[in-house]
Amino acid sequence: MPTLKDQLRSDLTAAMKARDETRTRTIRMALTAISNEEVSGAAAHDLTDDEITKILTREAKRRREAATAFADAGRDDKAADERAEEEVLASYLPAQLSDDDLAALVAAAIAETGASGPSAMGQVMKVVTPQVAGRADGSRVAAMVRSSLAG
Fold first, then answer.
1. pTM for the structure as a whole
2. How many angstroms separate the CA atoms of 134 and 102, rounded?
3. Does 31 have pLDDT greater than 90?
4. What is the CATH number of domain 4-90?
5. Cβ(8)–Cβ(16) under 8 Å?
C-alpha cells in the first residue's frame, strides 16, 4: 500500500498533466511542508502517515482561517481560493466525525475518567484527543467537552 506521501506525489503528477492549477499548487505546498518537517531538528527523518496527516490537518486549518480572514476583509475571490485549497487537503484527511460520534466519544471519556465539572476538562481532553486525531478540529472537541462537563 502506498504511503500518503507517495499518494501526494502521484496526485501531483496527475494534477500537472490535467493542468489543474489549484490542485497542483495545493499539493506542492503540502509536499513542501512535509519536506520542511522532515529536515527540521537534529537529523533528517522520514515521516509516518500519522505525522503527515497532522501536517495536512494543520495546513487545512490555515486555509480555513485565511478564508475567514479574506472574507471578513471583503476579498471573496481570495477566500474562494483558500476554500478550494482546503477542499483539496481535506480529500487526503480521514473523514470528519459527526456531532453524534464526537458526543459519544466525549461521553465515554467522561465516564472513563469520572470527570465532573469544568475543572476536569484537561483530563477528558487527554483521553479524547488521541481518539479523534485528524478526524475533528481541536476547538470543536474542546467545545463539546466543555458543554458536556457544564451540563
1. 0.76
2. 13
3. yes
4. 1.10.1510.10
5. no
